[in-house]
Design a protein that fits this description.
The protein has 335 residues and is α+β, with helices and mostly antiparallel strands. It has two domains: 12-162, Chitobiase, domain 2, CATH 3.30.379; 166-333, Protein Transport Mog1p, Chain A. Helix content is 27%, strand content 32%. The strands form three sheets. Strands 8, 9, 10, 11, 12, 13, 14 and 15 form an eight-stranded antiparallel beta sheet that branches. A six-stranded mixed beta sheet has the order 1-5-6-4-2-3. Strand 9 and strand 10 form a beta hairpin. It starts with 11 loop residues before the first strand and ends with a strand.
Amino acid sequence: MIKKSSAGLFIFLAFVVLMSACSDGKNRSDKVRSIGNTSEILVVVENEQQWDSKIGQSIREYLEEEQYGLNQSEPIFKLAHIQKQSFSEMFQKHRNLLIVEIDQKAEKAKIEYLEDYWSKPQRIVKITASSAEDFVNAFEENAQFFIEKYNQAERERIVSLFRASESKKVAGKVVKTFGLRLTIPREYYVAKTENDFLWIRKEVAAFSQGIVIFSEPYVDTAQFSTASIVARTNRFLQQYVPGPADGSYMVTSEKFIVPKSEVVTDFFIDYTVETRGLWRVEGDFMSGPFVSYTFIDSRKNKIVSMQGYVFRPNKEKRNLLRQLEAILYSAQFFP
């Protein structure tokens, strides 16, 4: 994930996770709540020329990459930028910060990563390089790591908000059915419960969000392939998640956006496969994005999938899907 560049540039990555030894002497629990819109990163540049140059172009190319699996095009993050001279105490509280520094005296690119420094949750990346070229090399070689950490801060913020309005009833049903603990807001309700299947919904005038959880006996690693995950998902959806018209039902869409899977290493189970794509309703015209996480429950020798989906026709969906991602990432075995 963090590599040397092809040009042999050595990158020093200083992980500074600030706990009780913060420079201001405060504990993490004393930190003020971070600010910033959902999915937003504030980039601090030294001048506008940096933002308009290849430095800014590289940052935008990676951090504004299109989020996979959405009906309408949306970037994974929304970027805002500010000049260093305007980087006041208020802006220092932003949840996601990327700080650019060009120092001609720097012998090698230096990347500093800090957590919860001025606020909480907060992720700060500061890259110091001798030139714009060195900065771009350092940034691009480690961009995926930065994205993972910014995503982590987003999930932490969302779950902390949901925890204050948690539905004990729905969470208890998940525990009873699967032995899993999820932080689920009170707007959600249990729509259907069957053996090895649970459907949770949130229905408001403007949109719908839902979570389906299902499991079956674990046989071998082939069950982690995208084809196997999709086939298993479709079996449960067809059986238990009907559409609005008679005979209609939810399935995974494979026509316009092919489901894509990858292993994630920061879930509560070491080996977990994340799958993104579109769902649709067979026999109707409904569709939307989904994200799912598949893992082994070794206590029961079962393979489990948890899928969150969004329905919001002709409107942006990234942040609603991110909420579901945060809920699913809150999973823990219980007890």
